[in-house]
Design brief:
This protein has about 260 residues and is α/β, with parallel strands linked by helices. It has a 9-stranded mixed beta sheet with strand order 4-3-5-2-1-6-8-9-7, with helices on both faces. It has one domain: Acetylglutamate kinase-like (Carbamate kinase), CATH 3.40.1160. Helix 1 packs across helix 3 and helix 5 packs parallel to helix 7. Bound molecules: uridine-5'-diphosphate. The site of uridine-5'-diphosphate (UDP) has 25 residues, from helix 2, helix 3 and helix 5.
């Protein structure tokens, strides 16, 4: 495959994509069990996580170099906890710890199907995983391992979207793939507006100006400044990740003016 558009990619997985169907709802993990949680489904559903891992393994088998940044929103979100009285920085550190749990869950699911991985955390946790060391991550990728980055940027008041943009830039990734449970970026919320239109491509500046729900503004700006395209796609749809990488499949690409 010499005509590949991308060789090294960073996959951003929202914590939500690891949840069981019944557990998705309000988007606020602190609300689970109060309508958002339905049957009080699992924050990390092993079957769902295994399916996501299979999509990743299929792409890895095609020879792509893969970095992954996992979110923690299925377990804990600093901002919503702060709204309920938590001190913000403490809540954010709890959120970062949640991303480490998700990283281990993704590592476990990948290794169960024979994909070699390493987890590197922005908050050193020697007994659990490696600390983030860029050159070491580079070596893992060269050896064909999938590197899973946990704990975002390692500081409160950020999100794992910013962590994904930062790692994508540091690791010189050709693109940031945002795997979500929707199939792209719309000009309005498709759940509320029946006529909402999905973009095939949209510029960073349009996303920022119209406040389109892709990633937070600092992550978009970091990708724009480093010219890293963002590909938003549905990772829950079987075969879609590989299809989108091959230039088929349904997605929205966020990039600069062409
Ligand atoms: N977080 C943080 N700094 C970071 C990354 C994450 O403080 O660099 C905290 C923040 O509280 C956030 C939580 O970890 O709400 C979980 O991450 P995020 O909301 O980005 O997860 P996602 O929505 O992608 O599942």
């Amino acid at each position: 495959m010499s005509d590949r558009r991308f060789n090294r990619i960073l996959l951003k997985l929202s914590g939500e994509v690891l949840m069981g169907g019944a557990a998705q709802g309000s988007g606020d993990p602190q609300d689970r069990g109060k309508g958002g949680g339905g049957e009080g489904g699992l924050a990390i559903d092993p079957a769902v996580t295994a399916r996501v891992a299979q999509e990743i393994a299929d792409v890895r088998a095609q020879g792509y170099q893969l970095c992954i940044v996992v979110g923690g929103g299925n377990i804990f979100r600093g901002l919503s906890a702060a709204a309920k009285g938590f001190e913000r920085a403490t809540a954010d550190y709890m959120g970062m710890l949640a991303t480490v749990m998700n990283a281990l869950a993704v590592q476990n699911a990948l290794e169960q199907i024979g994909v070699e991985t390493r987890v590197q955390s922005a908050i050193p946790m020697a007994a659990v995983c490696e600390p983030f060391i860029r050159r070491r991550a580079e070596r893992h990728l060269e050896k064909g391992r999938v590197v899973i980055f946990a704990a975002g940027v390692g500081s409160p008041f950020f999100t794992t979207d910013s962590g994904a943009a930062l790692r994508a830039a540091e690791m010189k990734c050709d693109a940031l793939f945002k795997g979500t449970s929707v199939d792209g970026v719309y000009d309005a919320d498709p759940k509320q507006v029946a006529t909402a239109k999905r973009y095939d491509t949209v510029t960073y500046d349009r996303v920022l100006a119209d406040n389109l729900k892709v990633m937070d503004a600092s992550a978009i700006a970091l990708c724009r400044d480093n010219n890293i395209p963002i590909v938003v796609f549905n990772i829950r749809e079987h075969g879609n990740f590989a299809a989108v990488l091959a230039g088929d499949g349904v997605s929205t690409i966020v990039k600069g003016e062409s």
